[in-house]
Specification:
Blueprint lengths: L2 H14 L15 H5 L5 H9 L13 H5 L6 E2 L7 E2 L7 H13 L5 H7 L4 H13 L12 H13 L9 H4 L18 H12 L7 H10 L4 H13 L27
Antiparallel strand pairs: 1-2
Helix pairs in contact: 1-10, 3-7, 5-6, 5-7, 8-12, 10-11, 10-12
Protein name: C-type cytochrome
InterPro entries: Cyt_c-like_dom, Cyt_c-like_dom_sf, Cyt_C_IC, Cytochrome_c_Oxidase_Subunit
GO molecular function, one term: electron transfer activity
Amino acid sequence: MSRRIIATVAILLTLAGCDGGAPRPPFQDPDGWQAKLATADPARGAALYAQMHRLSGEREALSCATCHGPQGGGNYGLENPKHIAPRLAGLNTVYVGEQLRAYANGTRVFPPMQALAGKLSSQDVADLAVNVAQLDPGPAPLQTLTPALVERGRVVWTEGVVGAATPCAQCHGKAGEGKVLRSPAIAGEPFPYIVAQLTTMHDRGRTGTTAADTMSAAVGRLRDDDLVAVAAYVASLQAREVGESRPANAPAAPTEKPNRGGV
C-alpha cells in the first residue's frame, strides 16, 4: 500500500475521531488519577462514560459511548467510513488513564478527545479507567481482509523482521490480548484505525507516553507494506480477554508484573 493511500486513511480517521488538531493546555493534577485508582468507582465511571457534552464546533452533543459504543466495542464505520473509533473494553486502567492525560495535555492530538479529556478531574480519569476495564462488548465484528496480507502480518507479528522489528507478540500477546502493562489489547480493532496509528507512530507523530514512545521505536524501521500487513492481522484476531489480572481498582505502578488481561 502506498504512502498516499496510508495518508488518505489517516486523514479520514482524523475526521472520524483519531489524531489531528491543535494541542490544548494541560489539565490540573495530571498524575493524581493514579493514586485514586485504589478507590475508583466503576459505577460513577459508567455514568461519566455515558454523559453527554456539547463541544465547540460539534452539531450534536457527544459522549464516550457515542463514538466507542455503549459497551466500548468501538465503531467500525459500517454505516459511515468516517465514523471509526477503537475498541476500549477491557483495556488496562493505566493505559486508559495515560491516554486521557495525553489528550488533555496535548501530547496526543485529536480535538474532540482533547476537549472531552480536558474536562476531567483526576478522580474522573480514575473512575472512567476502571469502568472501561470492566466493559465486555463481545467478539469484534469480522472485517473484510486479504488473506495474503493477513498472513504477511502474522509473520511480522509472531517472528518480527530481521534488522527492523522484534515480534509484536512479545508485548501484545500471541492473540493480541495485551501481555505487558503498557501494551494494549488490540485484537479485532478496526483495520483503518490500526493503519493510521502505526503510521503515525512510525513517523513519530504520536509520542510523549511510554506506550507511544516504545511503539515509535518498535515500528520505526518497518516498511509501509509491513505496517499495513500487521494492521490486517490485528484486525483479523478475535480472541480478546476482558478484565485485568489484578482487581480493576488496585493501584498501578510502572514496576508491577505484566498484566495479561488488558494493556
